[in-house]
């Protein structure tokens, strides 16, 4: 289906995401009935196991973000106050 726009014609697009596994180099889709008869596809390979050492606590992640943003103690306290207020 083509959609008309003031400056261009745009083809309406829809995407389907399906869970799949790779077994011996072959892609095995969990719900093959959802596959169209023919189509193009892009494949994203997800890591098998997330790295164990990359996990950090929320506090560690916050401290890393503060270091990255170069927040000194007063600015970090102001920022934390704003974040706390926004969560209420």
| Rg calc | 23 Å
The average pLDDT score comes to 79
The largest beta-sheet arranges its strands as 1-2
Largest pleated sheet: 2 strands, antiparallel
- Rough outline: elongated
What is the tally of helical segments?
2
What oligomeric state best describes the polypeptide chains here? single chain
Helix share, percent: 25-40%
Find the count of extended strands (DSSP E, 2+ residues). Answer: 4
Order of helices and strands: EEEEHH
Q: List unreliable stretches of 5+ residues.
A: none
N-to-C terminal Cα separation, in Å?
Answer: 44 Å
Write down the domain tally. 1
- How much β-strand is present in the residues? 15-25%
What does the model show?
- With 88 residues, the chain is an alpha+beta fold.
- The chain has one domain.
- The strands form two sheets. Strands 1-2 form a two-stranded antiparallel ribbon. Strands 3-4 form a two-stranded antiparallel sheet.
- Strand 3 and strand 4 form a beta hairpin.
- The relative contact order is 0.07.
Defining traits:
two-stranded antiparallel ribbon; 4 strands; alpha+beta; 88 residues
How is the secondary structure organized here?
Elements lengths: L1 E3 L4 E3 L8 E4 L2 E4 L28 H11 L4 H15 L1
Antiparallel strand pairs: 1-2, 3-4
Give a quick precis of the structure.
The chain has helices spanning 58-68, 73-87; strands at residues 2-4, 9-11, 20-23, 26-29. It has 88 residues and is an alpha+beta fold. The chain has one domain.
């Amino acid at each position: 289906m083509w959609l008309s726009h003031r400056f261009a014609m745009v083809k309406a697009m829809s995407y389907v995401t399906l869970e799949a596994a790779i077994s011996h180099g072959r892609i095995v889709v969990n719900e093959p009935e959802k596959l169209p008869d023919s189509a193009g596809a892009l494949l994203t390979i997800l890591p098998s196991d997330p790295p164990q050492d990359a996990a950090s606590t929320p506090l560690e992640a916050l401290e890393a973000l503060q270091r990255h943003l170069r927040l000194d103690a007063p600015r970090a306290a102001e920022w934390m106050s704003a974040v706390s207020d926004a969560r209420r």
